[in-house]
Amino acid sequence: EGTNGSGDKPTLSVVTEAGFMPFTYLDKGELTGFDIDLLEAVMGEAGYDYQIENVGWDAMLLSVEKGEADLAIAGITVNEERKETYDFSSAYFESTHKVVFREGEGITSGEDIKDLKVGVQSGTTGAEAVEKILGKNHENISKYDSNTLALMSLQSGDVDAVVTDNVVADEYVENNPEANVEMITDPDTFESEFYGIMFPKDSEVKEDINSALQTVIENGTYSEIYQEWFGA
Ligand code: GLN
């Protein structure tokens, strides 16, 4: 275990899922995103060195559950079900879901996906939202290991629509004009949710990191990072 300048703090192991642009993704092989910048600010404030590894969604959850990683960040939604298995920081970002679909599909509400083939990222709140509409494990739901793969399946025509987090949908639609897709949101169908940093249940660093997150939010650093990524 390494130490940082202040002496006695361990180097923390952070895991992420780099298929969730603009929160965590790879740019020319390098891990980048809003969450990556926020993490750096929070860890700096808390005085921890850390190593971050892109392990994918399922492995990320498992390594936090087992306590092999000290924390995870990847646009992870805090909800009651997950709180049974993990601990979370306070919320740092509000989110909801959007439906991304091929132009002309005529989708105007969440319920409109009911008779379509829908792609989701397995094990996410987007997958849950779709199961509420179509039914649990419905045959028209295709589950992918990453959001990136779900969106690729939309382009290739394997599914008619993809449900994912609103900011991720915004980024995808804006960056892929040649994909000929459009999107809608629907506050009557898709609830508001919040992202948090995820910790193992018995985390000894959670309090430290959560208070650093509060400082970063209160001292304007969060706003600077937000401005950089979302320009508002
Ligand atoms: N916010 C969603 C969830 O927690 C998706 C996160 C992700 O795919 N990285 O389920």
UniProtKB/TrEMBL annotation:
<keyword id="KW-0732">Signal</keyword>
<feature type="domain" description="Ionotropic glutamate receptor C-terminal">
    <location>
        <begin position="11"/>
        <end position="232"/>
    </location>
</feature>
<dbReference type="Pfam" id="PF00497">
    <property type="entry name" value="SBP_bac_3"/>
</dbReference>
<protein>
    <submittedName>
        <fullName>Amino acid ABC transporter substrate-binding protein, PAAT family</fullName>
    </submittedName>
</protein>
<dbReference type="GO" id="GO:0015276">
    <property type="term" value="F:ligand-gated monoatomic ion channel activity"/>
</dbReference>
<keyword id="KW-0449">Lipoprotein</keyword>
<dbReference type="InterPro" id="IPR001320">
    <property type="entry name" value="Iontro_rcpt_C"/>
</dbReference>
<dbReference type="InterPro" id="IPR001638">
    <property type="entry name" value="Solute-binding_3/MltF_N"/>
</dbReference>
<keyword id="KW-0564">Palmitate</keyword>
<dbReference type="GO" id="GO:0016020">
    <property type="term" value="C:membrane"/>
</dbReference>
<feature type="domain" description="Solute-binding protein family 3/N-terminal">
    <location>
        <begin position="11"/>
        <end position="232"/>
    </location>
</feature>
